[in-house]
Specification:
Keywords: Lyase. The chain has 4 helices and 14 strands. It is α+β, with helices and mostly antiparallel strands. The protein has a single domain, classed as Jelly Rolls (Sandwich), CATH 2.60.120. The protein starts with 20 loop residues before the first strand and ends with a strand. The N terminus is likely disordered. Bound molecules: fe (ii) ion (FE2). The site of fe (ii) ion has 4 residues, from loops.
Length: about 230
């Protein structure tokens, strides 16, 4: 099953006034809260420690992702990973956390709307976004949304990968096995032990064995993907 990749666009712009949030309400476009971004810093001093409400929305989003993975794959290894993921997000302990944004989050104005992006919009500004340790750039073109900073997920690692259009997330490898669920954007992915890149669309699920080299090249729109690593 493939989830249709509709080409509606989500508008994200940087708020330039002093309010934390305001809403863009254009008939033709989904609504996304807009946030002032201080490059690389927390949103501002008033937007302090977050918990319960944000965590509930994040758990809801993660459950949507877990269900989609189970529907999408019949690979027993991926299903096992998805089941572990589902267990960890059933009633995780919430952490106190400071939302943290990066410039690329405001630049994803061409993120295509998919069945996942509405719930993503609800959490994007409450997330903890970090630059990737695998690149030198500081969150201008790509970012990782670290769910483990928000929820106690035990021994698994769960995050969102954002790669701006025409940017590449570098080839890398690691010991834990990993699954990805593509949430928005079309890109060329290397995964699963292959040396070739294949084009994936929203709804696709891929699996990396331990130490498989993997990476992604975003095409004409930003990539948003969920990743789960487990032992
Ligand atoms: Fe990885």
């Amino acid at each position: 099953m493939r989830i249709e990749n509709k080409q509606r666009k989500i508008k994200v712009t940087i708020d330039t006034d002093q309010s934390n949030f305001r809403t863009l309400n254009n008939k033709d476009e989904p609504i996304l809260r807009i946030v002032k971004i201080n490059h690389g810093n927390s949103i501002n001093e008033n937007h302090s420690m977050k918990t319960t409400q944000s965590a509930d929305q994040i758990i809801y989003f993660l459950k949507q992702c877990a269900d989609a993975i189970k529907i999408q794959t019949n690979n027993p290894t991926v299903l096992k990973g998805a089941e572990i993921f589902s267990q960890r997000i059933k009633s995780p302990t919430e952490k106190q956390f400071n939302p943290h944004l990066l410039p690329v989050i405001a630049q994803i104005e061409h993120l295509s709307s998919t069945p996942f992006t509405f719930n993503f919009q609800q959490i994007v500004t409450d997330m903890v976004w970090r630059p990737s340790p695998r690149t030198d750039e500081k969150g201008e073109q790509m970012a990782l949304g670290i769910f483990n900073e928000v929820l106690d997920l035990g021994d698994i690692v769960v995050g969102l990968l954002v790669v701006d259009k025409h940017q590449s997330y570098p080839l890398h490898q690691h010991r834990p096995q990993e699954l990805y669920l593509v949430l928005s954007g079309t890109g060329d992915w290397r995964y699963g032990g292959s040396e070739e890149f294949n084009t994936l669309v929203p709804g696709d699920v891929i699996y990396n064995h331990p130490n498989d080299l993997h990476g992604v090249n975003a095409l004409d729109e930003p990539i948003l993907a969920l990743y789960v690593l487990w032992k």
